[in-house]
Design goal:
With 1105 residues, this protein is an alpha+beta fold. The chain contains 26 helices and 56 strands. Helix 5 packs antiparallel against helix 6, helix 8 packs parallel to helix 10 and helix 9 runs antiparallel to helix 10.
């Protein structure tokens, strides 16, 4: 037993315990980790369940509780006093007295320093902070091998040390220091290039050293880093410091020292005033750390030991309780006795007891829940990928109603007696009656509807892309007014008779007076604010970038409290007496390992021109689709470009400024001409101007590659780092097209032909390390990659990805079953589907694809040149039989229309069913009506050949049998890989065929314009996508009108696309059959599954345990 003397616990460096100055032997492994955890939770009860979670992360052994008991027994013997480590209510408490822990000594000294600074005593503050920093002996908790919790604690403790170091420099600056601090500050900026505070301090020190130009250069370098890597501008205080340096503000000079003041022949009052002014001016510089951080007193600072993937309740900035969640949270709400947490990856809502935070149940909801609200005795959840809202009864603990709303529902709010849903794809707001669940109205938001709030007499909708909010009035179909706020607004809250908006890219919060619709205050906060909640004690703001939590005092419009969370907050909500915060995974905690993928023929090439995979993991374009799961994955964001431009010259000119400092994996910088080279290469290699035909000179380029010159169509300015596109006519989908692999930048030397086995140098987080066609692709981390936009190109989790090619679907499933592979990329084959989804339910994910399978009918060839025959086929086809032929509802859903569900412009519509209903869904075939139409056409007995590709034989067999049943002499013609070229050749007079269309980007034009416009019909060419050869000038005019409205009035455009879709259904150039779904099968090693509507499963975002 260890001696029972005075104990000294040391965690700020190598982990050790001293008793009366002599080291106490510490046990190995988990026993050492347990003591570290108990020290971090000193003087608090920690439950056994919590200790098990912290010691073994996500995979504790069954014996874990017993092992904790054994470790506690050993620790008691080592510490020598049983009363030190006591058992309390299924948990343990370690008593640590004042100053026995070095962390407590450090925090006490730092707190005393802050009090001295608040009192204006910079000398005492500097001395106390030096003493505090001397407590540190090296990296915190060194020589302790822990899991996620200790990783996050090391990061938090290092943040405390850095903050103290910055405050000590601040105190030195307040004392008049300048040149003496330069070496230290330059090293600090090099080590932490994205922290604003050290850069501000360096600027002030340089200025005081007579190096004004270098001070301004330091500002420019920081701004370039922030814009280039995070996509945000420096905070307002740093901008004010730059302006103060430019005008050589005397307030920036070093303060007059005491001895100088006695010698000066000036009135004492002026000296006193001067002494007060200087610390305030210094505060301008130093406040730039994270906007207003140093304006806070010691009592305004706080910390919270909030775990990763957890939810915590806070009052006055202090954590009251917390609970770990089984999956990553997406949204949180509180009310009706519970805390409700939606998980997009888990497709469920966790119901936690509000008083104990015990998880009572997990409630399955729809696909990719992303928003949650409580009101009128119910919990309301938006399901982003299936266009519905789930209504949960809190008492029953289950979904009691599923309500169809608009497309891409994201945010939701309760207020003004209704439930309000922001439909991001439609740019509309649905009003739901909370009593009946009926949709009462659909309002045009005119925004991308990123967030929503209801109250203060209106509904408020955030337009993230345009930097504004829309005020909607119930009863009015369009916004009453739109109000400009900051850049990249992403969250909204109501409180203190005001509307509050978090501007992520500006690092500010805007306060709006709802009576005047004017911005009355703009308040600097932490970097990248993304969450807001109103509470009795103020407005709370979360910042994921610096993992902090801020309180704004509405009485002063200033931040008066900051809490360091240690984790990135992903959602926040008020709960009556305080706020609830949900945190995501610890950055880097799931990084590492090798992901093993098995697939068949795809990807068939590593050239970005040849398909979707794997280019988005390795390379980048000017724009990108947000690389997340759920409906947010259809949002366009800047990638290599610093921002998304507003087109000029009537929509024909787009100018992009590239982010600086991005390199290819071979070390070369990405330059503006690389973008032009990529577009030119696409036109030459593909011989098709399909994507880029609107660019001046693109058509000539594709027609004659030898004379290809895009200088007039794509202008380059290397000095300004800009790329300017000049279009012949407006192209509303142009920014979407630039996000496709064909537009990904390629460096000089990339051949104007397919690259074969030599990959294009990478810009993304991965590079192709090896490629064996038809056998294997091996990905490794790109050593030149640095994070510039987590939205466009986040850092991947696996260190390596091994992609095995040429594996049959059945063999893929077998490999995942036996843990020889982690992902069956091609899904689960029909004959294994029931078994796999039953036996491995927790490892399968089903997603509806944004596509439609249809039977095209050639409107220029008998018998389908008669609209009666086309409609007859639509009435007669048994879509349920097609679903069964494909393997059941896990593989397909029946449809009567071209646009798929939850897609911009989709409105349910099905006239071709037995007993049509207002719901617009298919129920059963109507053979009698079909027979009457065919009889009237006089075409019974005609010969019909249905062309069938290899991947559509089940559907082909159903439609051929149907045609025979209707009296036609029908046969199927099976084709190979030449199918798509042949059906587009009008010279072959193909009568009918089966086809699936998944658009290249999430726009209705990608279906309706691409397949059914007169422009899409190109007779006599294999490039003809309009296999129905359909051309209706009235429909064409509607299509062009809808495309034009995409830019000026997206909500009205969505409504018009719906009308066009329904008109095409009536004309029946195609017979829509089903919307395909995919079932992904994963190994038990894999976590963090995310389904992106554009790129489908995000392989690089999977965790490998």
């Amino acid at each position: 037993m260890a001696p029972a003397g005075t104990l000294d616990f040391r965690i700020l460096g190598p982990f050790e315990v001293l008793s009366d100055g002599r080291p106490v032997p510490l046990g190995p492994g988990k026993e050492r980790v347990l003591l570290a955890v108990l020290l971090l939770y000193r003087n608090e009860r920690v439950s056994v369940d919590r200790l098990v979670d912290l010691l073994w992360d996500e995979s504790p052994p069954e014996s874990a509780p017993k092992m904790v008991q054994i470790y506690v027994s050993r620790l008691r013997r080592r510490l020598g006093r049983n009363e030190r480590l006591t058992t309390q209510a299924a948990g343990y408490r370690l008593r640590v007295d004042r100053d026995e822990l070095d962390l407590d000594r450090f925090e006490r000294l730092a707190g005393e320093a802050r009090e001295a600074a608040s009192a204006g005593d910079a000398g005492s503050a500097a001395a106390r902070l030096r003493d505090a920093l001397l407590v540190w002996r090296g990296r915190a908790l060194a020589e302790v091998a822990g899991g996620h919790f200790l990783e996050q604690e090391r990061a938090r403790l290092e943040e405390l040390r850095l903050a103290a170091l910055e405050e000590r420099v601040e105190a030195d600056l307040a004392l008049g220091a300048g040149p003496a601090l330069l070496d230290e500050l330059q090293a600090l900026v090099r080590e932490h290039p994205l922290r604003e505070r050290p850069s501000a301090q360096l600027m002030l020190a340089l200025y005081r050293s007579g190096r004004q130009a270098e001070a301004l250069s330091a500002y420019k370098e920081l701004r370039d880093r922030l814009v280039g890597e995070l996509g945000i501008e420096p905070g307002r205080p740093l901008k004010e410091l730059e302006q103060a340096i430019l005008r050589q503000d005397p307030a920036l000079d070093a303060p007059v020292r005491e001895q100088e003041r006695h010698a000066a022949e000036k009135p004492p009052q002026r000296i006193a005033r001067r002494r007060v002014a200087i610390p305030a001016a210094a505060g301008i510089a130093i406040a730039a750390s994270v906007a207003v951080a140093i304006a806070l007193s010691g009592r305004g600072e706080g910390r919270a030991l909030l775990a990763a993937d957890a939810v915590g309740i806070f009052r006055d900035g202090r954590i009251v309780d917390q609970a770990r969640l089984g999956t990553a949270p997406a949204a949180v709400a509180a009310g009706d006795g519970g805390v409700w947490v939606a998980s997009s990856s888990g497709n469920g809502v966790s119901d936690l007891d509000e008083s104990t935070l015990d998880i009572r149940r997990t409630i399955p909801v729809g696909d990719s829940p992303s928003g949650i609200a409580v009101g009128r005795g119910a919990v309301w959840v938006t399901n982003g990928l299936d266009g519905t809202v789930s209504r949960i009864d809190p008492k029953a603990g289950r979904v009691v109603q599923t309500i169809q709303v608009g497309n891409g529902p994201a945010a939701i709010a309760y207020g003004l007696g209704s439930v309000w849903v922001a439909n991001r794809a439609d740019q509309t707001v649905s009003q739901i009656d909370p009593r009946t669940g009926n949709v009462l109205d659909t309002l045009a938001a005119g925004t991308d509807a990123a967030a929503i709030a209801a109250g203060e007499g209106a509904v408020w909708v955030v337009d993230q892309a345009r930097g504004r909010i829309a005020r909607l009035q119930p009863g009015f179909t369009e916004p009453v007014v739109t109000i400009n706020v900051g850049n990249g607004p992403s969250a909204i809250a109501l409180g203190a008779r005001s509307v509050w908006v978090a501007n992520t890219l500006d690092s500010t919060v805007s306060r709006l007076d709802p009576r005047s619709d004017r911005i009355v205050a703009t308040i600097p906060v932490g970097a990248g604010p993304a969450g807001l909640a109103a509470a009795p004690d103020g407005i709370w703001v979360t910042s994921a970038f610096d993992r902090t939590f801020w309180r704004i005092d509405p009485a002063t419009d200033r931040v008066d409290r900051r809490v360091r969370l240690g984790q990135g907050p992903v959602a926040v909500a008020g709960n009556g007496s305080g706020v609830v915060v949900a945190t995501g995974p610890l950055p880097g905690s799931h990084r590492g390992g090798t992901l093993r993928v098995a697939s068949g023929e795809l990807p068939s090439s590593i050239d970005p021109l040849d398909g979707w995979w794997p280019a988005p993991m390795t390379n980048d374009g000017l724009t990108a689709f947000r690389r997340v799961g759920g409906v947010e994955g259809t949002q366009l964001v800047p990638d290599l470009a610093a921002s998304l431009p507003t087109p000029t010259d009537g929509g024909t000119t787009y100018t992009f400024r590239l982010r600086r400092g991005i390199r290819y994996s071979d070390g070369r910088l990405v330059r503006p001409e690389d973008v032009r080279r990529a577009v030119r290469r696409a036109l030459i290699v593909l011989h098709d101007p399909y994507y880029f035909g609107a660019i001046v000179g693109a058509g000539e380029c594709a027609a004659d590659p030898r004379r290809c010159d895009l200088a007039r169509g794509i202008a380059i300015d290397r000095r300004a780092s800009t790329v300017t596109f000049h279009l012949k006519a407006p192209d509303p989908e142009f920014l979407f097209k630039l996000a496709l692999p064909a537009a990904f930048a390629v460096p000089e030397g990339t051949p104007d032909r397919h690259v074969g086995i030599r990959p294009v140098p990478a810009t993304g987080p991965y590079e192709i390390a090896a490629y064996k066609p038809g056998r294997l692709i091996r990905f490794a981390r790109n050593p030149r990659f640095h994070l510039w936009s987590a939205a466009a190109q986040p850092a991947g989790y696996p260190d390596r990805i091994i992609w095995h090619l040429g594996v049959s679907p059945a063999a893929q499933v077998a490999a995942v079953e036996s843990e020889q592979a982690d992902v069956a990329f091609d899904g689960v084959p029909t004959r294994r589907l029931a078994e796999v989804t039953t036996q491995y339910a927790s490892r399968t994910r089903q997603n509806l694809l944004a596509g439609t399978t249809f039977m095209f009918l050639n409107t220029r060839v008998p018998p389908f040149d008669d609209v009666r025959v086309r409609r007859a086929i639509s009435y007669a086809v048994d879509r349920g039989a097609v679903v069964r032929a494909l393997g059941g509802p896990e593989h397909a859903q029946p449809t009567c229309q071209i646009l798929p569900p939850n897609f911009a412009g989709y409105r349910p519509y099905c006239p071709y069913t037995l007993r049509p209903s207002a719901a617009g869904t298919w129920a059963a075939p109507d053979l009698s009506k079909a027979q009457r139409l065919i009889a009237g056409s006089g075409t019974r007995g005609a010969k019909v050949t249905v062309w069938i590709p290899p991947n559509h034989r089940p559907e082909g067999a159903v439609v051929v049998a149907l045609l025979r049943q209707l009296g036609y002499r029908a046969r199927g013609k099976l084709l190979g890989s030449d199918y798509y070229a042949k059906i587009g050749n009008s010279r072959l007079k193909v009568q009918a065929g089966v086809h699936t269309w998944l658009p290249d980007y999430p726009a209705a034009a990608g279906f309706l314009h691409a397949l059914f416009s007169c422009e899409a019909f190109q007779p006599g060419t294999g490039a003809n996508l309009n296999a129905s050869e359909f051309c209706d000038r009235h429909v064409d005019r509607l299509i062009e009108r809808a495309r034009a409205l995409e830019v000026t009035d997206p909500a009205l455009a969505s409504s018009l696309w719906s009308k066009i879709d329904h008109e095409l259904v009536n004309e029946a150039p195609v017979v829509p059959l089903v919307n395909p779904t995919q079932v992904d099968f994963l190994s038990r090693r894999v976590g963090n599954y995310q389904f992106n509507p554009q790129w489908h499963m995000l392989l690089d975002q999977l965790w490998v345990r």
